[in-house]
Structures are given as C-alpha cells and as structure tokens.
Automatic annotation (TrEMBL):
The keyword Coiled coil applies. It comes from Lentinula edodes. Residues 452-462, 470-486 have a biased composition (Basic and acidic residues). Keywords: ANK repeat, Coiled coil, Cytoplasm, Endonuclease, Hydrolase, Nuclease, Repeat. GO terms for cellular component: cytoplasm. GO terms for biological process: ERAD pathway. It comes from the Eukaryota. The active site is at residue 164. This is C2h2 finger and ankyrin domain. PANTHER family: ANKYRIN REPEAT AND ZINC FINGER DOMAIN-CONTAINING PROTEIN 1 (PTHR16036), TRNA ENDONUCLEASE ANKZF1 (PTHR16036:SF2). The VLRF1 domain mediates binding to the 60S ribosomal subunit. Residues 161-170 have a biased composition (Polar residues). Residues 101-262 form the VLRF1 domain. Belongs to the ANKZF1/VMS1 family.
Amino acid sequence: MEELNVSLALEDSLSGSESSDEEIDSDSGHDAVSTLVDKQKPRKRSISPELSTRRGPRTAISWFHSSPSTQIGVYRVLFPYDIPEDDHLQALKDLQEAKSGGRSWAMFMVAGGHFAGAIVRVSNAGKESEVQSKKTKKPVSDMEVLRHKTFHRYTTRRKQGGSQSLNDNAKGNAKSAGAQLRRYGEQALREDIRALLSDWEEEIHDCEIIFIRASGANRKIFMDYEGSPISKTDERLRTFPFPTRRPTQSELSRCLQELTRVKVSHFTEEALRAQDEAYLASLPKPKPIPAIPVPLAPEKPKSKQVKLSKEEEILREKWQRLVEMVSKGRLEPLIAFWEREGNNLGGINVRLPEWIGEKRVATLLQLATFSGQEDVTNWMLEMCADPTIPVPRSEDEADSVEGEESASKRRRTAYDLAQSRSIRDVFRRNAGAHPDWWDWFGAAHIPSALSKEMEDGREEKKKVRRKGLKDRLKEREAKEKEKPTAEESTPFISIPSIGPHKLGGSAGDTAGTAGLTLEMKAKIERERRARAAEARLKK
C-alpha cells in the first residue's frame, strides 16, 4: 500500500534514521516498518494505572508511538477483529509483506437509489511495493482498480427523502404513479446489484476486506439471499469508519485514499499523558454500587375501620342531615329539626365533628356563611350564634401570616367567609339590631352596623340613579326620532294595485324605477333578466 509505505518511511526519517541513500530501493517500506518495530519494542510508553482500569470507547484509529514524539495512526478496520489490540503492530507489519495473488479489497456503497462498487488491488503479488521512475524519481502507485460499476434508479421522493418501501411500511401503500415508479426502481436496483455481485463472485471471494456502506434495509440486498457470495457472518465485512457522501466512483476513490493514508502527529509523552487524563476526567463517573442493600421501608399497616355502636351511627346520621340542611339552605326543615334535636347535639355554637371532613369551617354559622345561605345565616344569628369564633387555618395560611404584628389579622371569623354583599349585610343588620350581644366591630371583624334608615337611603339612591338613566334614555330616543331616516329620505314609489306586482315592472316600463338610485336600478334589472332566463329554461 503506497500511501501507508510512504508515510511510514517518512516517520522513520523523522524519528532519527541515519540512512543517507538518495534512492529508495524496493524494500524501503518493509525496512521502515521493521525499524519502527525495533524502536517501539524497548521504548513502549507505559500506560497509566487509571487508563488500564478504566476503558473508554475505542476510537476508529489505532495509534502507534515512536520515541521521542511521533505517533502514527491507522484505521482499526484494516486489522482482523479476532486479534487483541496489542498485536496490531505485528498485523501492520504483516500488511507490508507480499502475498501470493496480491491483496484486494471490495468496496460497495448504496444510498438514495445510487450505487457504486469497485474491486481494488492494494498491493501486487511478486512485485516491488514501490517503483521509482527514472525521469521523475517519484514512487509509482501499485493500487489498481480491477472492476468498477455505478448506476442509479429512481427510488426516493424528491426533496423529501426516504425510500418508498419505508413510506409504505409507515403509512400504507400509496397508489400514485410516482409511488409505482419508485417501487419498480427499488426492485430493479436490488436485481441489478445482485446480478453484479454474481458477476464479481470470484473477485469477491479473493478479497481480504469487504467494505459496505448501506442502511438497514439496503444492507439486505448484499447478503442472506439464495446464491449470495457474501454471508451475513463473514468476518471480512467492514463499514467505512468515517462519513461518506453520495455513492460515486470519485467517492470510492476518496474513501480508498482515506483508508490507506497514515495519520501522523507529534506529541511528547507528557502531552499524551495529559490528554489521557483530560479524556478520563471528561467521562461520566459511574454510579457507586452500594455494598449493603438498602432495606425497603415497611409498609404502614392499614387502619382498621372502627365498628360503631348503634347510638353512634344514629348520632352520625343526625349530623349528616344537619350539615346537608345548612349547606343547602333548607330553613323550614332545619328549624323543625333543631327544635327537636338541638340540645342533644350541643347547642348552636357546637363544633363540627372531625369525621365530617369540613376542615374549612368550625361551626354551623361558618358553614352557612361559607355556603352563601342568607336566610340560614340570619336565623342562626338570631339564635345567638357566636360570630367571633375563629375559622380553622390550614398549614399554607399559617405559613403566610407568620411575622404579622396584629393578632386579629392572623385569625378569620364567619364574616370573613362571606362571599357576597347580601351575606355581609345580614351580619351588619344583626350588629345594628343587637349591639350588646357580641363584640361585633372587634372580634367579629364587622366594619359597621346597618340600620333600617341606612338601607332606605341606599334604596332611594338606587331609585334616583335608575330614574336618571331612564330620562337620559328617553332623551336619546327622542333625538333619534327627530333625525330623518334613510327610508324617509328615499322617495316613495307608488305601484298600481291592479294585476300582479313584479319587481321592476314589465319589460320596457321605466315608470316603476323612477326616483331610484343607479345601484337599485341595476339590481332590479339583474333580477328581471334572471327571471327571463328561468322562463326560457322552463320552455
């Protein structure tokens, strides 16, 4: 391989070769590799213990180090898969030796309906690996393209990508003419490639490496069919270890040059060690495996339902009825029920039991206020229900009021639960009617009392406001009546009452359109012509 031999010879001279011959003999490539092997064996760079214990993902290139600061890289796909990494240097040396029949590679690419294939001899058998021209004194390449072929079929949708078969599998078979052509193109491409493989079967059998660039669906074209020269488990199969472009003959040549060209770098051992440490530091740290398994938290035993006695069941039923009547505003049955069971339940200011589940209120008055029942709230206040009992606070409300100075701001009462003005007026009326019963304007949080005179004054203001609105509305209607409307400005057209009336009058009659605007006349004319056309169609 010319590119490989020349690069290795160059690295040998950079590494301190004392050869002063002006001409390169036939064994210069082989001597360069031998010299490189001799230099590397005693001076093999020691691997850091962290690198030996912690393996990262392998790169596509295998690097060989030659002291003091030269590195040579060769693609790993050129070496057999079944040999360890430490034997790559010996495998590289074996690649420089002559082989009976020569060394040949097969290269195939298929994508987007384009196919390119070639059989390439990378070294000739029984010949010198490098020949020097007498005139130019430059090495002549011994790579030779034995067979090559390219062709194209219409298989993909323009500017949309994806083969027709993938589109059919995802969305179902399309019935367009383009879909039929693409299906035919895929079948023809598959048949052409397999026919080509059958023609090149002998050359493929002699190849050392087979490079295939194809997607999952297109890869099945090359193998695992009846009479296939390439097996799916063939150890010679390789993929291109670098990005490739559209399959063409020039792209195959570029890939061949890339595979046979040696990569050269110049780093000291300290720089390489620093690169290793930086690479290891960039890798994600593995999660530590706990030595002792963490015991699972024991499941909490399910609380058993307490069996209630008959008296407790009756009491709970009474409370449920009471809460339902208060929250739904059923005042008459509530009064009858309370006269019968009020003393047994604990009075008007009794606390609601916890098992009811009403965490937002604590008393019946608070429940009626929160539910918006005006009549029930007024009845309870007349029954001396305490409006100063604080409302229970949730955890969020307790956290939000921390740090406030006034204690009255940290507590709410039944009046604070009122969600409408009518409910708040109930509290204010009772505060004005019974000012000595409770601390209405302090602990109960009621802003002011509401008397009968205040309510009458409010209603009087409402009446005055409504009357003013009605007067303004009447004035506006009167002004609109004084203005001439569009209908009044249009002159009235009298139509004779004898005989059938038709819009626009009879043909040639212009008396019916006198005084009309041009737009109205045009509209009447269009309707007259439309009726005449309909009459002709009926005949």
